[in-house]
């Protein structure tokens, strides 16, 4: 007799704006998940999954899953461990933490290190933050992905650039600006594609001919880090031709006159062409099509930004500048028009309830996670980092200046705990290694940064071995440390219900977005927040800025000693402004994600790694030929920080002067034990203290003749 399978609804937890609904089918006789697919009833993701998550059971049942706590028995980096009990592990961690906290260095010598390995509200940040706040550990500024863009949007709009993503079908001119939407935001690409069937034109601005660029109606191959200059050049043409929406500027904006004077005086198309590497004719054409979208295409224009364009020295200002454009054209008025970076701030989760920032001791230092190399080498203010607790993150692979991160992790006097699903590159350096659950094995709740639905992840199967979720591990550690039970002896569902009591109004049109939505509601399936369909949040101004208007001129920036108007801030490592550095390392390298991976997740799953193939670097023929590089040849990519081996792909998928490598590989799967981050810098963005992965001058040479010094 065929057994009836149990159906469980879940959520994809990975760092992607789509936050797909899942349906898991479990054999109740074995407790084993036998099928996982997209939730066809999810109004936005509609049953479709990317290939990574469509094969998620390969990850859940991977033979290399960590199953038991372990203690290091070899040298750091060798990855040799012996099994211990949870009682042994928590006792040793608590003993070491207490000893450090009581030393002259104090608890700030302990550093929690985490990011978005899981995006659930409980597993990303709840009892973990309470624990480290209560302990008095250093704070971590989680900047490695999105902080520059978020800060840039906050200057202009008071929140991240936002529309209702489902309303994008009404747009008629869609600009993917630094966004490989077809790969990294697949369900929004489907919305764009539907808009195109209704008459929309799709344009992609990107130094790299990504899948999205190849599928677009027009690809504008901009020079890395010059996006703000293009936006300012578009503004010049809009004002020059009188195509601006003067009524919107007068009623809902601050600083339109000052901005007009700047762009007309400083950012002519010829100037912008020199900075961006684009032709004057293309800049003129783009400005005309974007600025006159209603007249030419019958509907508003929409800019879909993504985080690649803010990963350079001027990245925050670039985003701040680009999101001014819909104010000049008046596209914020229209459903489906405007700009979209993230919807995350539309969710009124009570983060203060989850994380308890009131427990933070006055004067506690904050360490920028992008500067882990400096932190591990004692180069930042405050006590040396003597202990690190790593979870939801693989810093040995993903952090910039990789060689110095690894040398820091090898320190004999550094006590490192890693809580992971697999023995990653970082786990090889752990003193204590703890097994973590996957999404199928714990409860969580989710917002999204690409749609407006709130969801619950229901556990489908029991954890394998002795794997535990983040929340349970921090309950165990809190008990061992003797911390107050009322802070930690709280069930995950109670935490989730408390988080949903948030009643903030950050840009909400009427009432609270979670009104009348219960935990039981979202456990049954995705629920759209109480926001109008086809929501255009800034149609009549109402910007959550100090002035209540779109701040084209920012008094806050002026008071901070920065330029109050949008401007162009070049990358730290720019051939036009650093000719002496470019003489040694003339190629601008960017490292977008490989479609088969998600940051460093999925690299160890055979099907995804085989699909990714090998480490490659794409180089234009005009750069390859003088270097004697042919297609398929082994090369070395290098600068003063480090080097890695790759296979050259010679073609016109990149501009001359630009090379592209897709990441992020685990070092153990590369030819030389290094990935692209051995060359990247820990320099920070102008706003938000973000990472500058795409701000990187390198040289490329044939491997056999490359210098090994």
What secondary-structure arrangement, pairings included, does this model have?
Blueprint: E1 6-11, E2 21-27, E3 32-38, H1 51-54, H2 56-60, E4 70-72, E5 81-83, H3 86-102, E6 110-114, H4 121-124, H5 127-135, E7 139-141, H6 147-157, E8 173-177, H7 181-184, H8 186-197, E9 201-205, H9 211-215, E10 218-220, H10 227-241, H11 246-252, E11 253-254, H12 256-266, H13 269-276, H14 280-291, H15 293-297, E12 301-305, H16 315-322, H17 325-329, E13 338-340, H18 351-355, E14 366-368, H19 372-376, E15 387-391, H20 395-398, H21 402-409, E16 415-420, E17 432-435, E18 444-446, E19 453-457, H22 470-481, H23 485-488, H24 492-499, H25 519-524, E20 527-528, E21 550-551, H26 555-559, H27 579-584, E22 587-590, H28 606-612, E23 616-619, H29 621-624, E24 634-638, E25 643-650, E26 658-660, E27 697-702
Parallel strand pairs: 6-15, 7-14, 8-9, 8-12, 9-10, 11-21, 12-13, 15-16, 16-17, 22-26, 23-25
Antiparallel strand pairs: 1-2, 2-3, 4-5, 4-17, 18-19, 19-20, 22-27, 23-26, 24-25, 24-27
Helix pairs in contact: 3-22, 6-16, 10-12, 10-13, 10-14, 10-16
């Amino acid at each position: 007799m065929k057994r009836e399978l149990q159906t469980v609804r879940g959520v994809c937890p990975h760092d992607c704006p789509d936050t797909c609904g899942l349906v898991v089918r479990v054999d109740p006789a074995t407790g084993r998940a036998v099928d996982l697919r997209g939730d066809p009833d999810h109004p936005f993701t509609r049953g479709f999954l990317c290939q990574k998550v469509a094969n998620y059971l390969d990850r859940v049942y991977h033979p290399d899953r960590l199953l038991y706590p372990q203690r290091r028995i070899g040298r750091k980096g060798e990855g040799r461990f012996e099994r211990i009990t949870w009682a042994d592990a928590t006792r040793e961690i608590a003993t070491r933490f207490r000893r450090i906290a009581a030393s002259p260095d104090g608890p700030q010598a302990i550093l929690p290190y985490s990011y978005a390995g899981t995006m659930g509200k409980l597993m990303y940040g709840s009892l973990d933050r309470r624990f480290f706040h209560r302990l008095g550990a250093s704070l971590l500024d989680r900047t490695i992905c999105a902080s520059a863009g978020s800060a840039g949007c906050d200057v202009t709009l008071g929140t991240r650039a936002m529309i209702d993503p489902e309303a994008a079908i009404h747009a008629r001119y869609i600009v993917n600006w630094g966004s490989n939407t077809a790969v990294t935001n697949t369900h929004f690409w489907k919305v764009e594609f539907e808009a195109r069937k209704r008459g929309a034109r799709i344009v992609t601005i990107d130094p790299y001919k990504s899948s999205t660029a190849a599928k677009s109606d027009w690809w504008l191959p901009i020079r890395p880090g010059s996006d703000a200059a293009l936006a300012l050049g578009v503004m010049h043409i809009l004002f020059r031709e009188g195509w601006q929406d003067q009524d919107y500027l007068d009623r809902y904006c601050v600083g339109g006159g000052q901005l007009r004077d700047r762009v007309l005086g400083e950012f002519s198309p010829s100037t912008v062409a020199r900075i961006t590497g684009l032709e004057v004719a293309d800049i003129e054409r783009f400005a005309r099509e974007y600025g006159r979208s209603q007249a030419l295409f019958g509907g508003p224009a929409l800019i879909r930004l993504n985080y690649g364009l803010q990963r350079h020295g001027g990245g925050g200002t670039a985003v701040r500048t680009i999101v001014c454009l819909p104010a000049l054209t008046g596209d914020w008025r229209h459903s489906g028009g405007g700009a979209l970076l993230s919807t995350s701030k539309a969710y009124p989760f009570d983060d203060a309830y989850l994380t308890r920032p009131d427990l933070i001791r006055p004067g506690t230092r904050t360490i920028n996670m992008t500067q882990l190399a400096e932190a591990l080498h004692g180069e930042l203010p405050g006590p040396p980092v003597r202990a690190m607790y790593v979870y939801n993150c693989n810093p040995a692979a993903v952090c910039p200046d990789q060689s110095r991160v690894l040398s820091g992790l090898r320190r004999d006097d550094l006590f490192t705990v890693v809580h992971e699903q697999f023995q990653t590159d970082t786990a090889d350096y752990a003193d204590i290694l703890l097994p973590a659950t996957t999404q199928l094995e714990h409860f969580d709740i989710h917002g999204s940064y690409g749609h407006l639905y709130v969801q619950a992840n229901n556990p489908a199967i029991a954890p394998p071995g002795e794997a535990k979720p983040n929340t349970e591990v921090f309950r165990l550690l809190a008990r061992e440390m003797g911390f107050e039970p009322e802070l930690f002896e709280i069930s995950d569902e109670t935490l989730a219900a408390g988080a949903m009591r948030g009643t903030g109004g950050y840009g909400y049109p009427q009432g609270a977005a979670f009104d009348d939505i219960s935990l039981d509601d979202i456990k049954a399936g995705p629920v759209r927040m109480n926001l109008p369909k086809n929501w255009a949040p800034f149609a009549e101004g109402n910007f959550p800025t100090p002035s209540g208007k779109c701040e084209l001129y920012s008094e806050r920036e002026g008071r901070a000693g920065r330029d109050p108007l949008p401007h162009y801030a070049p990358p730290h490592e720019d051939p036009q402004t650093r000719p002496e550095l470019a003489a040694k390392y003339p190629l601008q390298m960017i490292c977008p994600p490989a479609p088969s991976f998600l940051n460093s997740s999925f690299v160890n799953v055979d099907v995804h790694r085989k699909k990714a193939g090998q480490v490659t670097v794409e180089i234009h023929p005009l750069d390859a030929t003088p270097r004697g590089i042919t297609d398929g040849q082994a090369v070395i990519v290098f600068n003063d920080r480090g080097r890695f081996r790759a296979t050259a792909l010679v073609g016109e998928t990149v501009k001359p002067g630009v090379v592209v490598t897709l990441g992020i590989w685990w070092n153990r799967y590369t030819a030389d034990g290094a990935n692209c981050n051995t060359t990247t810098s820990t320099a920070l963005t102008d706003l938000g203290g973000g990472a500058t992965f795409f701000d990187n001058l390198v040289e490329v040479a044939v491997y056999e003749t490359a210098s090994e010094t």
